[in-house]
Specification:
The protein is α/β, with parallel strands linked by helices and 467 residues long. The chain folds into 3 domains: 113 residues, no CATH class; 248 residues, 3-Layer(aba) Sandwich (Rossmann fold); 90 residues, GMP Synthetase, Chain A, domain 3 (2-Layer Sandwich), CATH 3.30.300. 30% of the residues lie in helices and 24% in strands. α2 packs across α3 and α6 packs across α8. The relative contact order is 0.08.
Amino acid sequence: MAPNIPALYELHFAVPMAGGVLSALNTQLDVTELAPILEQLEPCKIMFVDYHLIDSALKACEILSQRKCKPPQIVLIPHYDQEPSFSVKDISPGTLNYNELLASGQKDFETLKPSNECSPISVNYTSGTTGILPKGVVYSHKGAYLNSLAAIARFEMKQKAVFLWTVDMFRCNGWCFPWAMPAIGGTNICLRNVSAEAIFDAIHRYKVTHFCGAPTLLDMISDQRPLPHRVSVTVAGVLPPVHVLNKVSQLGFDVNIGYGMTETYGPFIVRPWSPTSDGENTKLNYGIEFMQNVDVKDPKSNESSPCDGKTIGEIVFKGEALMVGYLKNPEATKRAIRDGWYMTGDVGVREANGSMTVKDRAKDIMYCKGEAVSSLEVEAVLLNHPKVLKAAVVGRCDELESPFAMVKLREGCSATVEEVIKFCEDHLASHMVPRSVVFGDLPLNSTGKVQKFRIREKIKSENGITQ
């Protein structure tokens, strides 16, 4: 449990080489979220913890002891260039110091190779946006190997690339970049804390060539100065407004749009984004290249959807580079993988040219007046409003399932409900326009994703929000 520091990078090699299974945990988890994950990971033998996170780890271990589960051995990771001002013995009996542990290692240690290429190498947890315990996604040595090599081609990485760590290593093992970078003799620049200043300082100082992460990165860097050289940035998630993408491109960034999830080791498909006019919107941004191992299928008949740009089906993936399954959850694994296809839970359409457009999460798609409405498309229009910082759209629990929008305005900005609705009317078909808009902070989970189930609960509890 650590941010993007050298120790966590080292552990991506040390743990598998010692015959263990690595689980990089979300640093934003609170104690009540962390304890059940550790309980599911039992027997978790060793827990490496960054010095900033030691209190949460110890409290979670106390909860494990109360539940009659054996807590893991704690190894404290101190600041990289200085020892802590306190003794690890003062923290908890039996706690070890990371640097001292390394110093006690055997130089002639022989790597313990996996008995089978499909043996587990790591467990990564989903974001848990539905309000239930996140699922533990098991990665295999084979899957990690294939995805690491694929990343080199997917992200057009050349020999001696310089990678800046802005994507968390607890997200799909950093999209497999920890293992990809040594294959090309690359350099890793670790960032404990991500900021626009830190990103631009690293680009100038270390000649960074690549970095990745959530689309919020683009908002973060859009107001900075032009770059001294072209830099590749890849994001995956709900995209920012077109004008932000344009501005980032003009600064000297080559923007790539990724699509994938934890179960696919991160982005399964990546395509370059081309600057466009502000009037053009989300269909381009969510369109992704069609591949042999990607399809859109009717979930009942399992038949591929026609290439008509309107028949909605579930997006499915197939291939060797998918998860083994969910940890200790065979039923969820059986539901997720059918006839060798991974059911993403996302819906989309196949276009006339054979490409695919992602429409929405299956649980978030709305049907208003008999027409399918993508919450992502409505959100993208809202995000193009100059005063809107964040937006989330769900279907109201009424006879029309009309779109309901929760909007967070940019700092210092004010807007009326009528103004926001009018903006949507100018850019959307009538059945897609939100009939209800509220302003405020969006409910987010520990990874920063919107918890739409909480918005639906708010609608139900207030039974008829009208503005």
